[in-house]
Specification:
single chain; globular; alpha/beta; Endonuclease, Chain A; seven-stranded mixed β-sheet
Length: 168
């Protein structure tokens, strides 16, 4: 199986990988449906490749930050993400923060979720209305990268660290 666009970009990142998520739900896959049924699982066992990939970047000095802009009360999907964050994202070495959407009203944010690599390369994730990913777009335009860097910094500055956030 070939590596994804994300994996290739992440493997070449040198200093930072910042991810901004702004949806209250993503594709409702089998893992999510299992969680909804009450069948809990260890995300590190379910997705060891993530722990290895992100952990390898963190070990070589890459700062991996994830910020989530969420509506409150949170959707069931965001509660699922919240419950898996410690055993998945944090365990891999990510720093994660949460920003209640009502506190983001004064921010200029891009129209799509993105990863920003080393402040220069943006990977936009495109989704259908039902949360299914429809594609990715790599953009290396310095103006777009600056916009995404500023948006991420603004969200990060207002957001609550995962350890302190209590989903409403």
């Amino acid at each position: 199986m070939a590596d994804s666009v994300f994996e290739n970009l992440f493997r070449s990142v040198r200093s930072s990988a910042y991810h901004l998520e702004m949806r209250d739900g993503y594709g409702l896959d089998d893992d999510y449906r299992q969680w909804v049924r009450g069948d809990r699982f260890d995300p590190a066992e379910r997705w060891p490749w993530w722990i290895e990939l992100i952990g390898s970047g963190v070990a070589r000095g890459v700062a991996v930050h994830r910020a989530r802009v969420v509506s409150e009360p949170v959707s069931p999907y965001v509660r699922y993400e919240y419950e898996l964050t410690t055993g998945h994202n944090i365990k891999a070495g990510e720093e994660v923060r949460w920003l209640p959407r009502r506190r983001a009203s004064g921010l200029a944010l891009p129209g799509n979720d993105f990863w920003l690599f080393d402040g220069t390369t943006v990977l936009f994730n495109h989704f259908a209305g039902n949360g299914t990913m429809t594609g990715e777009e790599v953009v290396m335009d310095p103006v777009v990268a600056e916009l995404c860097a500023a948006a991420f910094a603004a969200v990060w500055g207002l957001a609550v660290p995962h350890e302190e956030y209590q989903p409403g």
